[in-house]
């Protein structure tokens, strides 16, 4: 009986440790898949976009350092399977917590964030669509208060 329990605990630990790296692994796979359409905007281009796009006065925008978009429709079948599995089954995982989850029939969105104290370091949007699944990743140092201000600004309109 002890051997059975030890085996069960070990199997659970191994499966959870592999699963806990889901978002980071998915992003690595997506960035290395040649068939995935990728767009990355960082550094100087983000600075120009903020200044020329009229968004420099938004505190949230000041904290965003880069944006990556991965369109998976032509990607590897295993990658898409991993995406749908992560979308449907993850709640909170190592470093990431679900901020918003919305599902409408077969489509939906899950927004995950990774934060340290009150600073959001990573914001990952998993946009589920059977034909065109998309991952959008924002990185930077976004303060929670800035998001609250933005939400309140649009709620008052």
Molecular structure report:
- The chain is of the alpha+beta class and 157 residues long.
- A seven-stranded antiparallel β-sheet has the order 1-2-7-6-5-4-3.
- Helix 2 packs antiparallel against helix 5.
- The longest helix has 19 residues.
- The N terminus is likely disordered.
List the helices and strands and how they pair.
Elements: H1 2-20, H2 22-32, E1 37-42, H3 43-52, H4 59-63, E2 64-71, H5 77-89, E3 92-93, E4 96-104, E5 107-116, E6 119-128, E7 134-143, H6 144-155
Antiparallel strand pairs: 1-2, 2-7, 3-4, 4-5, 5-6, 6-7
Summarize the structure.
By secondary structure, this protein is of the alpha+beta class.
Structural class computed from helices and strand pairing? alpha+beta
pLDDT averaged over residues = 78
The profile of the biggest β sheet is:
7 strands, antiparallel
The neighbouring-strand order within the major sheet is 1-2-7-6-5-4-3
**Mind telling me the C-alpha Rg?**
18 Å
Strand content: 35-45%
- The termini sit apart by 63 Å
Report the uncertain regions.
1-20
Task: Spell the H/E element sequence.
Answer: HHEHHEHEEEEEH
- The coarse overall form would be globular
Individual helix count: 6
**Helix fraction by DSSP (H/I, runs of at least 4):** 40-55%
Number of strands: 7
Summarize this structure as a short list of keywords or feature phrases:
single chain, 157 residues, alpha+beta, 6 helices, 7 strands
């Amino acid at each position: 009986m002890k051997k059975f329990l030890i085996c069960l605990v070990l199997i659970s630990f191994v499966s959870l440790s592999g699963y806990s790296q889901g978002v980071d692994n998915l992003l690595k796979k997506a960035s290395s898949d040649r068939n995935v359409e990728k767009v990355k905007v960082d550094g100087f281009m983000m600075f120009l976009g903020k200044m020329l796009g009229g968004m420099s006065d938004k505190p949230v925008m000041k904290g965003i350092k880069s944006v990556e978009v991965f369109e998976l429709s032509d990607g590897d079948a295993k990658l898409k399977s991993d995406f749908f599995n992560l979308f449907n089954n993850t709640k909170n995982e190592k470093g990431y917590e679900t901020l918003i989850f919305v599902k409408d029939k077969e489509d939906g969105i899950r927004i995950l964030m990774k934060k340290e104290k009150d600073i959001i370091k990573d914001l990952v949007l998993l946009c589920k669509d059977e034909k065109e699944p998309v991952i959008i990743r924002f990185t930077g140092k976004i303060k929670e208060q800035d998001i609250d201000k933005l939400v309140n600004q649009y709620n008052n309109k």
